[in-house]
């Protein structure tokens, strides 16, 4: 069981230390990427998106429309840039559209 700290901390600092100590950042990043994809792509693309998964620094996106997959493949670098801006850090280096 973790020791209790007696010094006073801001709530944000306490949450960050909890996330760091319990190694939860990867899971939080995975959820944040899914939310960022949904926000940036909008309903038109989200209707054809079946899954969004982050593995290390590669984003795997499964789409049910081959036409949409082809269209999005032309703008991969722009999508990576927009997602990283939304996330506030360089998390995604590569996108694989399936």
Secondary structure: elements and pairs:
Elements: H1 11-21, H2 25-46, E1 49-55, E2 58-63, H3 66-73, H4 76-87, E3 94-97
Parallel strand pairs: 2-3
Antiparallel strand pairs: 1-2
Helix pairs in contact: 2-4
Summarize the structure in words.
- With 98 residues, the protein is an alpha+beta fold.
- The chain has a domain at 31-61 and 72-98.
- The chain has 4 helices and 3 strands.
- The chain has helices at residues 11-21, 25-46, 66-73, 76-87; strands spanning 49-55, 58-63, 94-97.
- It has a 3-stranded mixed sheet, with helices on one face.
- A hairpin with a 2-residue loop joins β1 and β2 (58-63).
- α2 (25-46) packs across α4 (76-87).
- The termini are far apart.
């Amino acid at each position: 069981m973790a020791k209790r700290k007696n010094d006073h901390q801001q709530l944000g600092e306490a949450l960050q230390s909890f996330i760091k100590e319990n190694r939860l950042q990867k899971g939080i990043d995975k959820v944040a990427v899914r939310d960022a994809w949904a926000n940036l792509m909008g309903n038109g693309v989200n209707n054809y998106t079946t899954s969004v998964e982050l593995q290390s620094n590669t984003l795997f996106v499964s789409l049910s429309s081959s036409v949409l997959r082809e269209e999005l493949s032309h703008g991969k670098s722009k999508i990576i840039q927009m997602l990283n801006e939304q996330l506030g850090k360089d998390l995604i280096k590569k996108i694989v559209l399936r």
